[in-house]
C-alpha cells in the first residue's frame, strides 16, 4: 500500500514503463498448430537491443505443412501490453513469411484479429531469411496470448519465421458485474459543482444493453454512460432552465458490436461544455447544449447500473453484465477502492475480482467458407437452430439434403427464408419467411423445426411470431448439414450466395454442436473458416461518410448516401457549392440567392446568401432574425475572416423590452462582438457609457430611462457594430409577457477569389507549412502556362508523399496509401500549354481517388483498403517546384487544400522568381462579357467594359430602359466636327464616348419596346440634310420603317405587318443596313431582307440627332411623321436602344454624364420593355391580329357580354364595398397596434483594420480621437 500510494514511486514507475519497449518473448512458451514435423523447429531467441535487431537467433519456426491453416501461438505468461513486432526468416534457409496477421486473446478462446484503419490488418513481412522487419503497432495489444498467422510466404521455400514481441507489463483491478451489483461511489461532499471531469474505464461483455455509469443532481444535471444495442451512448446535461428556453440535454453515440466479449476502453474528458469522448482510440469532440458549464451532482455516482433511488424513473434501463477494470473518476481509482473495501458494494451477491470465461464458440465465414456437421439420418424430424450476425442482406445459412429433396435456410433481403423441395412422387416446393432487417450486425437466432406434416420457423426466440406451414408428405433427413455454404459438385448445389459473417450456438437435432471437436478434426469438416473467432467489422463506425452522409454497408465495403447534405463523392467530402459569391460571378452568374460553402470540404455546413454581382465588388448578404442570430456564429466568422471588407446593418423593433438599466447597473440586453466580448452600448453611444444618444443629450421621452426603447415611441438608430450574438436577460423578460424585441441583421462582405502568383523561373517556388493530412484530402487550383512540363505542388514524408505534375497534355496525381504508390493521370484532348486557364481537382479518400481536369475529364480509381491513416509529412508544402524536378512556369490561382485557401499573393511578395497576381484572364473569361462588352484585364481578375453597349452590369447583361409618359422625349445630339475634338476624351460615368457627326453607309439600330397605344414614333434619327430614319407604330399597331437617304421623291417605306405590336407585350427589333441591303429581325420571326431602290442614295449624310418617343426638331421634317405619329407621343417602355456604338437611352438614365443628351417630360428607369414575351409565338395564319388571317374571329363576343352585364356589375359593386370595409378595419388595427411600438435600425461598418486595436470598443475610440460623451449628426436618435 505504501509503495503504490507514494507519489515519487509512481513517478519512477511511470518513467520506467513509459517506453514500453521490452522484449516480451525472451522467456515465453510457444505452441504450434497443426501437427509439426517429427523434429519441430521451436523458436530460438537471443537477447538483442530493440533498436538494432540485426539477428533474432538461430533456428526458427517452420511447420510441416505449408498452407493457410498454420499458426504459431505465443504465451506471454500474463496480460502484457504489446507495442511492436519484429520478424525474420528461418535461419540460413529459403523459408520466410512475407505477409501475416495477428490474433490475440486472454484465455486462448474467442480470438480477436488485430485491426487498423477499420480493417483486419495484414502486415508486410520479410523478403528473405536474413532481413529484419519491425512494425510499430498503431494501437497497443493488451493480451496474454498472441497468434501469428502466415498469409503469404516464400515462393522458393516454406513458411518460416523468427519473431520478437516488444512491450511491457500490464495490470489492472478487475470487477465482475452480474446485473445486480452496483458500485456506489460517494462524492467528497453532498453536492458537487464540477467544472472538469476525467473518467476512464474498460469493459467487456456479451450483452448489448446495460448502464456502465450514472450520476445525477437534484437540479436536473446528469451524466450517464450505457450500452444500447451494443453501442455506447454518453448522455450529459449541465442544466436546463425552468422556462424551457435552454435545453441542456446532449447525447452522443459511439462504437458498435461492443457485445463481442473483448475489452473496450472508454475515456471521457470534460472541461466546461467541451467534451472529448474516446472509445477504443476513436475520439469524438463535441460541445454540450445549453449555456451552463458546471455538472451539479448530488451525493454519489454509480458504476454498473442505476442506484436504487433513481430506478423508479429510469424507464426500465438494465444494469451492466460483464467485467470492468481500471475504473477511474477524477483521479480516484474506483476498482482499487472497491478491492480495499472503501466503496459501498452491498448490492453485490458475490463480488469477484476476476472475469469469467465465455462459453460461446464462434465461427467466422468468408465468401468461400462452409462447415459440415453430422446429424441423424432417416429421421422424420428436422430440428436445427443457430445464431448469426452479418452485414450482407443475402447469404446461405444452412443446407441439408433429404432422402427425397433438400432444405435450405437463407438470408434473403434481410429476412429469413426457408425453401423445402420434396421430390417424392412430384416436385413440391414450400417457401416460408420471417423477420426483417436482420443484416444489422446484431446477433439473431433462427430455429427451424419440421416434423410429421408441418414446419415451424422462429426468429429471435419470438414464439408469438412463429411461422407455421403444412408439409404434404413426411420428410426423411439425410444426416449431413452444411452451414455457410455448399460447395460440393452435386445436382442439388444451392444457388444462394455464400454467407459472410459469424455463427455460434449451432444446434443439430436439438444438440449443441461440439465445435472444439470439429477444430481437432474429431467430427465433421470445414473449409476456409476461422474457428473460435468472430472477425466482424463495422465499416460504418467510425462513420467515414462526412457532413451527415448516411452510411450503409455489406461485408466487404460501405457506401454513402449524400442526398440532402450539400456534398457529393464517395464519402460526401466534396461540396456541391462554391466558396464565395465571387466564384459564382466568374462563372457568369447574375445577382441572386446562392448557396455558398466558405470552407468547402470543411465541417461548416453550406448556407444561403444573396450575391450582388453589380459594381466592382461582390457582396455577400447574410440575413438573420431572432433574439440570437439564427446564422451560426462560425458561418458569420467564415465569411468575415475570408473577406477583404465587411459592414453590417442591424435593425430592431421593441416594445416594453428594455435595452439598458442604469448607467451603474447591469444591462438587460447586450450584443457580443467578433472577439466574443460583451457590449451594451446602442444608437450613437459608445463603450462604457451605457446610454443611448437621447440619454447623452438629456432629451429622452421618458427622463427616467436613458434609452427611448424603454418608452412607447418610434425611433431610428444608426451606429457602427459587428454583432455576432444578440442576447437578453431571461429573468427580466419573463416578467413581461407582452414584450417585443425583434432583430434583423444584414452582413455585407467582399472577398478575393483571384489569389494568384506568377512563376517566372523553373527554379522558383513558394513554400508553406505542411498541411494536416486527413483520411480525406482534396486539392483544387487553376493554372495557365505556355510550358509543357512542371511540378504544381509536392509534399513529402517518411513514407507518405503527395505530388501533382504537368506532363505535356497530361496532369498526374500521385500519392502513397499503405506503402503502395498510386498514380492517376488525366489526358486532355487539347494542349494544356495554350496559355488558357485550366482547373485541376484532386481528391483522395478511404474509398477512391479522383482526378478531374476542367470539370469534364476525370479518372477514378479505388484505393487499397489498408493504409488510410492520416498523412504525415516532414517537409514543407512546395508550390511550383520540387527537389530534382522541373518547376512550373506560368500562373496559378485559387489553391485550396481541404477547403483552406493558400495565400499565394502574400507569399509571393519578396520571393525571387515569383510575382503576385496574374495577367491574361480575358483569354479564358472574355465570353462572359456579353452583348458587345469588352473584357479588360485587371491585376487580379478581369472586368467587362459596357461603355459601347446599351447594357450595364458586371457582364453587360443588365438592360437599361425607361418608361415614357405622354409627351416625354429623349434627344441625343451628335457634335459638329469642329467642336468634337474638345469633348472626344470626355467620358460619362458609364464610359460612353461622345461621337461627332458622320456620313454612314452602314448602321445597326437595335432596341426593344412595349406599349399599348398607337400611333407613335419610337425612334427618329435626323441629319443636317433631309436624310432620316424613322421607326413608327401605325394606327393599327403594326410597325413601319421609313428610310429617306436622298434621290427619291418619297421615303422608302417598309411595313412590317406581322401583328399588332401595341399589345402591351415586349418586342425587340434589329435594323441593319449595308449600302442598299436592309435586314430586319423582329422578335422571333425570320430575318427579312429588303433592298433600297437604285435611285436611292446609299449614304446617310451628317447624322445629327437621335429622338426617342417624340420628335422636336427645327428644319424640314417629313410632314407625314408630324401629322400622323408625333402626337400625343409614345407612351410605354423603351429599352437597350443602340445605334452602332451609341446608347442614347443609357446616357440619359445615367446621372453626371458629359454626353449631349436632353430629356423633356418624365422618364422613369424601367426594363419593362425588355421583359421576355408572355405570349407564345403564333403563326400568321392563326394570328387574329394578322391582316391576312383568313376567317379570323375576334375572341370577345360583345353581344354575350351585354346580356349578363347587369348581374356582373352588381357583383362587382358588392365586392368593392366589402373590400373597402375590410381595408378600413385593417388600417384601424394597424394604427392601434403601432401606437405602442418602437422601431430602430443600426448601420454598422467595421473594417478589418479594426483588428489592430485591443478590442472592438478600443477600435471605435481610436478611430474617433475626439470621442467623448457626445454624438454627431450622423448618429442621432430621431423621433418619428
UniProtKB/TrEMBL annotation:
GO cellular component term of the entry, any: paranodal junction
The F5/8 type C domain, residue ranges: 61-168
UniProt membrane topology term: Single-pass type I membrane protein
Location within or outside the cell: Cell junction, Paranodal septate junction; Membrane
Transmembrane region(s): 1211-1232
Domain EGF-like: start-end pairs: 536-573, 919-957
Disulfide bonds: 891-918
The entry's keywords: Cell adhesion, Cell junction, Disulfide bond, EGF-like domain, Membrane, Phosphoprotein, Repeat, Signal, Transmembrane, Transmembrane helix
CDD domains to which the protein is assigned, alphabetical: EGF_CA (cd00054), FA58C (cd00057), LamG (cd00110)
Domain of life: Eukaryota
GO biological process: cell adhesion
SMART domains given in the database record: 4.1m (SM00294), EGF (SM00181), FA58C (SM00231), LamG (SM00282)
Keyword Cell membrane: no
Domain Fibrinogen C-terminal: 572-617
Presence of keyword Transmembrane helix: yes
Residue ranges occupied by any Laminin G domain in the UniProt entry: 174-355, 360-534, 755-918, 971-1168
Family per similarity comment: Belongs to the neurexin family.
Designated name of the protein: Contactin associated protein like 2b
Organism lineage string: Eukaryota, Metazoa, Chordata, Craniata, Vertebrata
Gene expressing this chain: cntnap2b
